[in-house]
Write a structure and sequence with these properties.
Elements: H1 4-16, H2 25-36, H3 50-55, H4 66-80, H5 90-108, H6 149-181, H7 203-209
Helix pairs in contact: 1-2, 1-5, 1-6, 2-5, 4-5
The chain binds zinc ion.
Length: about 220
């Protein structure tokens, strides 16, 4: 199955589509955690804690479903970003975190390692998987154990990590250049950076106080 090294950058790449030019660090950390959190249903499984796993409907059950992504993404946006500076921006945050969580199930459905994904749980326990399984196909490698690890990580980087990094770089670069072309600058570490605001400082102030416009 895809590891957290694949899920985190993929989730961050998805969230990057909604990120400000100078996204607060908290935004990226939250996005990465959104990509990982569905596997909470796997905690304890290696130690035989099957009852704990069953609590979540089994691995790739309720925490991998779309209803969970919607509910938890909304919860994070409204409860985790309660500062007044985020007022009016939480729907956008919620959408970003919902999609970041949902990428986890999609990646899991792109591998035949492990059970299919209950995308509609708890509304339906039907499990789904894609017909194409490029991520660590179970029959593709002739080696096992630790000898397999480099191949697995390279595969995950190609199919999940690299696309996520490309999305992050492309999205942030595009937004920064757009602001520069408009003669505006993003705020740093505030929700204001989500909004494109006219900048009422001189170009000299802009360069000295922020530095985020440096090409
Ligand atoms: Zn998973």
């Amino acid at each position: 199955m895809p590891s957290w090294l694949a899920h985190a950058p993929a989730a961050m790449g998805t969230a990057a589509l909604f990120a400000p030019a100078s996204a607060p660090r908290r935004y990226w950390v939250t996005a990465a955690l959104c990509g990982i959190i569905p596997d909470v249903d796997f905690l304890g499984a290696p130690f035989g804690a099957t009852a704990y796993s069953t609590l979540f409907g089994g691995h790739r059950g309720i925490t991998h479903g779309i209803p969970f992504a919607i509910a938890f993404g909304t919860l994070i946006a409204w409860r985790g970003f309660r500062d007044a500076q985020w007022d009016g921006l939480r729907p956008r945050l919620a959408l970003a975190f919902m999609l970041a969580i949902a990428t986890h199930g999609l990646l899991d459905a792109l591998t035949d390692n492990g059970p299919p994904v209950a995308f509609l749980s708890p509304l339906s326990l039907e499990r789904y998987t894609f017909a194409w399984h490029p991520i660590n196909p179970s029959a593709a490698y002739g080696v096992r154990g630790f000898a397999r690890l480099p191949i697995v990580l390279a595969n995950e980087f190609f199919w999940a990590g690299l696309p996520g990094i490309v999305l992050i770089v492309a999205s942030v670069t595009w937004r920064r250049r757009r602001l520069v072309s408009l003669g505006r600058r993003p705020s740093v570490d505030t929700a204001d950076s989500f909004a494109i605001r006219p900048e009422h400082v001189s170009s000299q102030d802009t360069a000295s106080t922020d530095g985020t416009l440096a090409e």
